[in-house]
Amino acid sequence: MDLFNEDADSSSKGDQPSDFVNPHEPLATRMRPRSLDEFVGQDHIVGKGKMLRRMIESGVIGSLIFYGPPSSGKTTLAHVISREINAQFTVLNAVLDGIKDLRQVVQKAEKIQQMNGRKTILFVDEIHRWNKAQQDALLPHLESGVITLIGATTENPFYSLVSPLLSRCQLFELYDLTMDHVRAMIDRSLEDEERGLGQKNVEVTDAAKKHLAEFAGGDIRNAINALEVAVLSSEADEDGIIHIDLDIAKECIQKRSVRYDGTGDEHYHFASAFIKSLRGSDVDAALYWMAAMLEGGEDPNFIFRRLLIQSSEDVGMADPHALSLVNSAHEAFTKCGMPEGLYFLAHACIYVALAPKSNSTGAIFSVRSEIQQNGIGPVPPHLRDKTANSKQSRYLGVENASDDYHYPHSYDHHWTPQQYLPDEVKDKEWYEPGNIGRENKLWERLETIKEAYAKAQKK
């Protein structure tokens, strides 16, 4: 890489001119878009008249943060911007490179700026991996204008990046590429004679193209790589035509790509969809999102933890058995493992989704709020520990207040009216029972208790 060669494209490894095509590079690399007109997707930011496109066309580019899922085109868009504004393009990877590497980039950028006034775009991939000190190290160089930063992250930047860096950058969110975007790049790769397969006589059926686009899961590189394998591994017929049909396409891309990042925002989006489907009693949706997470490599234990929480948070007293069932399914899973463990996951998921729902266990948060705001009242005398009170009574020669406690099992229905809360909050109620499932029976008992207690208070 020659950072001082004005004609060099620093995204490549040698000193080739920017339009040089290396025939030994993978097809997906050769077909990487070089201009805004070639770039596919993200029309909400680079479409005609959109803000980022206007910035690029004006040549006035500030520091940017691209936030979006893997394979949404963050790196490619950064390459395109550098070419469109004729800027030097330098790449750092936040996993491998640190402050020492940043200093070297800045030194070279200063020399380039002094020699010919050319801008340097520093692309930092996975910028969220840099710690606070590393991110802060960028700030003075952004202020001086020595480098223009384009950072790429799959994590929510408002949580993963420091505020001073965010305040100096414009944030653009990129979305998943669609099947139509992938299909467009497949067609372009087949037609392009300079960088693609246009010089070869290739015929690909619509069914094969559809399969490649669907199974790529929005990942253009995945689809183009599969297309290249299909073409290179197939022999031409007597007329010199290479035929790619559905069967060949299936051989070249056998496993559908699942857009799921077990540690990034996608993890939380999928988990949220799973939780809300369970809460909404949509069993098919709950199974769908659970399967999607599993296909993406999610730890089954995480799913069981969510099911355990749902069993108390959203099913709760409407079906107290749900908690035991999920816990038993989890134990069975740990004994049997996969793939049979899918039965236990499905068993727990279906039960929780179909179970009657009640969120009355959330009463604990209302009680905690009461205590945090107003403190804890004294324990009523008749509820205090009898043994401790007896020692105090003997020493002081006073009556033991605990003797006033009424033992419920000594009365009919194993209940008798008496006050259990401190005087300050004796009339407050935090528990709001649901009226379906098992909790409806408990609610009826609670109403009976309340009525009996109210009558006792009036006597």
Q: What's the CATH class of the largest domain, please? A: Alpha Beta
Give the overall shape, derived from the CA principal axes. elongated
Percent range for helical residues? 40-55%
Radius of gyration (Å) = 33 Å
Number of strands: 7
Measure the end-to-end span: 94 Å
How do the helices and strands follow one another from N- to C-terminus? HHHEHEHEHEHHEHEHHEHHHHHHHHH
What class do helices, strands and sheet pairing give? alpha/beta
What is the CATH-assigned architecture of the largest domain?
Answer: 3-Layer(aba) Sandwich
Provide a count of the helices.
20
Fourth CATH level, the homologous superfamily of the largest domain: P-loop containing nucleotide triphosphate hydrolases
CATH topology of the largest domain: Rossmann fold
Profile the largest sheet. Answer: 5 strands, parallel
When the domains are counted, the total is: 4
Beta-strand level of the residues, as a percent range?
5-15%
Give average pLDDT, whole number.
84
As laid out across the biggest beta sheet, the strand order is 2-3-4-1-5
Unreliable segments (pLDDT under 50, ≥5 consecutive)? 1-17
Written description of the protein model:
- Helices cover 50% and strands 7% of the residues.
- The chain contains 20 helices and seven strands.
- The strands form two sheets. The chain has a five-stranded parallel sheet with strand order 2-3-4-1-5, sandwiched between helices.
- α6 links the parallel β3 and β4.
